[in-house]
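Researcher: I've been going back and forth with a colleague about how VOC family protein might be arranged in three dimensions. Neither of us has a model we trust, so I'd like an independent prediction. The organism is Actinacidiphila acididurans, in case that matters for your notes. Sequence below.
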Amino acid sequence: MPHLGLVTVVVRDYDEAIDYYRRALGFELREDTPRVDGGRWVVMTPPGARETGVLLAEASDPGQQARVGDQTGGRVGFFLNTDDFDRDYKRMVAEGVVFEEEPRTEPYGVVVVFQDLYGNRWDLIQPA
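Model: Here is an independent structure prediction for VOC family protein. You can compare it with whatever you and your colleague have in mind.
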């Protein structure tokens, strides 16, 4: 059965992105393999994730650099599901994650919009 394996996030620097995703979002580094072109294949996943991960891709030209932090035209483009909203929200606040609003309850769950270190917009969501 097909599934979504990876989603690319264009980053300014591999190491600063790895640090942020580990520290602030609690992700795990699944793979960091050098590529023949000088880049790296860097995969990060939320703890326990089995299918979908984030491929960190360092911007390699001015066009890609212009997209860092605005990959989805200012819309929320990434959705981080949790089974314990309060735990993860509090940990992320303590790590200095930038939240755009206070958490709110919607028919689909408890949600709050945050920005990653580059300004990409994410939802932290505990589904209803």
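Researcher: What would you highlight for our discussion?
Model: I'd start with this: Strands lie at 6-11, 28-34, 40-45, 53-58, 76-81, 98-99, 104-106, 109-115, 121-127. After that, consider the following. The CA atoms of residues 27 and 47 lie 6 Å apart.
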